[in-house]
Amino acid sequence: MRFRLKILATNFPAILPLNYQYPLSAVIYKILQQADHEYAYFLHEIGYKQSENSLKAFKLFTFSDIKTPFKIQGDRMRMLAPEAEVIVSFHLPQAAETFIKGLFQNQEIEIADRKSRAKFSINRVESLPLGLSKEPVQEIILQPLSLIVSSKPNEQGNYDYLAPEHPDFIPQLMYNWQSKYNSLYDDVDEAFADADMKVLFYKNPPKSRLITIKDNTKEQTKIRGYVNFKLKVRGGLEALELLLNAGIGVYNSTIGGGCVDVAEKKNWGIK
């Protein structure tokens, strides 16, 4: 399920950190915790465990970039209008939609780091369709609404962030998608028998962006993701719902990585 949050800056002109994604993730967790402490603890500390690896956990939600006109000033974003919007999505039973929607209604939130603090009120929460049909197997084209992060472990024990042109970009996205699915369901081989994914490039190359989380701490991490391309995806209905709800690739709940929207639906054959 996904929602569009309409937010209004209450201390306009509002200044956001360029790396607002991690503070925004903290805001979402805080809202969940205020309404249901046990649910927030499960989502944040446990997640959905992968059956064959109990140390691997997924927090199955993501969110888009904040959509608002802005001007970059150093490492800050100065909003040029008080209104903004962001899409949040959760892989939860449809019966929870009213509950989750109610959590965000009329909330007062802050997106802040050590240098700046922006305050907002959530003025409107709109439920959004996923954009899928009821067909058991579908092909769709997805448009990124945030950075898509594909990574692969290297020999030094760290992770390399892969560009869409890299031959392992799609295999790593597929592996992550199947791992998420396997954390919830048992029929992963059957569900992904006909699954596929392909990058669709524009005339201009994909754009990369580096996001820093936990800035100025021992846990500081820099994450590189990419936009300015599309993905042609084929899969079963249940697997596609998971992809749209939980996000593509990694760092979904941490920085809103892999938030996507259905751009087109046709019967292309992936070759």
From TrEMBL:
<dbReference type="InterPro" id="IPR010156">
    <property type="entry name" value="CRISPR-assoc_prot_Cas6"/>
</dbReference>
<feature type="active site" description="Proton acceptor">
    <location>
        <position position="29"/>
    </location>
</feature>
<feature type="active site" description="Proton donor">
    <location>
        <position position="44"/>
    </location>
</feature>
<dbReference type="Pfam" id="PF01881">
    <property type="entry name" value="Cas_Cas6_C"/>
</dbReference>
<dbReference type="InterPro" id="IPR045747">
    <property type="entry name" value="CRISPR-assoc_prot_Cas6_N_sf"/>
</dbReference>
<dbReference type="Pfam" id="PF21350">
    <property type="entry name" value="Cas6_I-A"/>
</dbReference>
<dbReference type="GO" id="GO:0051607">
    <property type="term" value="P:defense response to virus"/>
</dbReference>
<feature type="domain" description="CRISPR associated protein Cas6 C-terminal">
    <location>
        <begin position="139"/>
        <end position="262"/>
    </location>
</feature>
<keyword id="KW-0051">Antiviral defense</keyword>
<dbReference type="GO" id="GO:0003723">
    <property type="term" value="F:RNA binding"/>
</dbReference>
<keyword id="KW-0694">RNA-binding</keyword>
<feature type="site" description="Transition state stabilizer">
    <location>
        <position position="59"/>
    </location>
</feature>
<dbReference type="GO" id="GO:0016788">
    <property type="term" value="F:hydrolase activity, acting on ester bonds"/>
</dbReference>
<dbReference type="InterPro" id="IPR049435">
    <property type="entry name" value="Cas_Cas6_C"/>
</dbReference>
<protein>
    <submittedName>
        <fullName>CRISPR-associated endoribonuclease Cas6</fullName>
    </submittedName>
</protein>
<comment type="similarity">
    <text>Belongs to the CRISPR-associated protein Cas6/Cse3/CasE family.</text>
</comment>
